[in-house]
Write a structure and sequence with these properties.
Rossmann fold, 471 residues, UCP005522, 24% strand, five-stranded mixed β-sheet, Circularly permuted ATP-grasp type 2 domain-containing protein, CP_ATPgrasp_2
Length: 471
Amino acid sequence: MPAFYDEMVDPSGECRPHYKAFAKWLADTPEELLQQRRREADLLFHRAGITFTLYGDEQGTERLIPFDTIPRAIPASEWRHVERGCIQRVQALNMFLDDIYHDQRILKAGIVPAEQVLVNDHYQLAMCGLDLHRNLYAHISGVDLVRDGDGSYYVLEDNLRTPSGVSYMLEDRKMMMRLFPELFASQRIAPINHYPSLLLETLRNSSPLDNPSVVVMTPGRFNSAYFEHAFLAREMGVELVEGADLFVRDDRVFMRTTYGARPVDVIYRRLDDAYLDPLAFNPHSALGVPGLLSAYRRGNLVLANALGTGVADDKAIYPFVPDMIRFYLSEEPILKNVPTWQCRKPEELSHVLANLPQLVVKETQGSGGYGMLVGPAASQAEIEDFRLRLKANPANYIAQPTLSLSTCPTFVESGIAPRHIDLRPFVLSGRDTRLVPGGLTRVALRQGSLVVNSSQGGGTKDTWIVEDCPC
C-alpha cells in the first residue's frame, strides 16, 4: 500500500498543530449537529444556484457541486513557500508567452522544441509581434498542486486560458463562516473575501487607461461555469455580457445598453480563442464579436487572458516549465514538476507502454478529468484501449507516475473517512503578482479515487491558511 500524507494527522497518530483547534471542536460537537449543518449547506448552495453543468449526463445537466464541511488547513509558514512558488512559476510562464510571440529566444536556444510551440493548436499567429501592456498574457492563472507521500508539493498542471473554480473557493468560505462562526473566532484564519476587489484591480491595471471600462464575457447560461461568470461580475460590480451585447465600430468595442453604446476597454473573457471573433477564427461561432481581433490588435482593447495563452498550459509544454524558470529568472524552481514522460519520444513511449498499469496517461490538450487513464484503477480492457490510442497518436499524450495524493478527513455516507485532495491557488498578475491566501481544494469523494474534478464526481472544501501555532 502506498503511503499517503494525511493533512490532519502525522504518522505517529498525533494531530498536526494547525489542526488542533479544529480537532478539539470536532470531538466536542454532537454528530447530529454536524449532519444538520451539512444539510443546511446543501440547501443554501441549492437556493443560491451554485451549480455546474455536466455535459452528456442523462440524469440532467445541472448539478450541485458537493461541499464538504471539514476544511483543508495549511499552516501559514507552509503557505508562504507555496505562494512564492506559484508567483515564480506564473512570472516565468508570462515571460515565455511574451518570448514565443516576439524574439523566440527560448526556442532558438533549444530549451523548448520549436515544433512543440509553433505547430501547437493554441499558438496564435495573430499574436506574433503584438505588444501587450506590461507584457502580460495570463492575468488570471490557476496552478494545480498535489502532495505526495512525503508531504512535498508538486505542480500537476497550469491553467492559463480560462481557469475556473474561484467562485466555489469564495462561496465555500462564506458557507463555513455562516455555519460555523465559532471556528473562526477561536483561531486566526487568513481572509479571502477581498479576491473580487483584487481581480477588478488586476483587470483595470491590465489597461494603460486611467479608468478603463471592464466587463465579464460569458458564452451564456448553458456554459458549465456560468454561475461563476455571473458571480464574479456581480462581486466586481461590472457588467456580465454575451457576444450579442457587444459590437465593434472603428476598431473600438462597444456595449449595447439602454442608455446607448458604451465603450469597453477590458474584457475578462470566459470563452475560448476560437469563438471570440467569427471573422478571424471559427466562422460559425455565434458567441463572439465580429471585428474583435482588429480592435485588439490596434491596442484598443485588453483581453484577459490574452489570445494564445493556451500554448503555455498545454500538457506537452508542462515538462519544460522548470527550464523556463531557469532561463528567464535565473532561479531554481521553488515547486517541483511531477516526473513526466513525453510519449512523442520513442524511448519514453516504450517505457509508458510497458508500464501502463502503474501510470496516469493524459491527453496533452485534455481537461476536466476527461481523456485520461489512471492505470491502477483501470480495467484491463481500458488499459488495452489506451495502448491502441497511444500507438496511433503518441504525440497527443504524456504520462506520469501515480502519485500518492494526500488525504484529508471528509464527511461521506459512512461517516468521516480520508479522501484524496488537490489545491488550486489563483494567481493574479498586474502591477504585481499576487494570491489570496488559500485556493480551491477539490476532493475525490469516491473511495480510492484520485480524480478530483467535479465532472468526475469530485467535491470541494474550504481552504484555511492558519497562523502557525506558537506551541
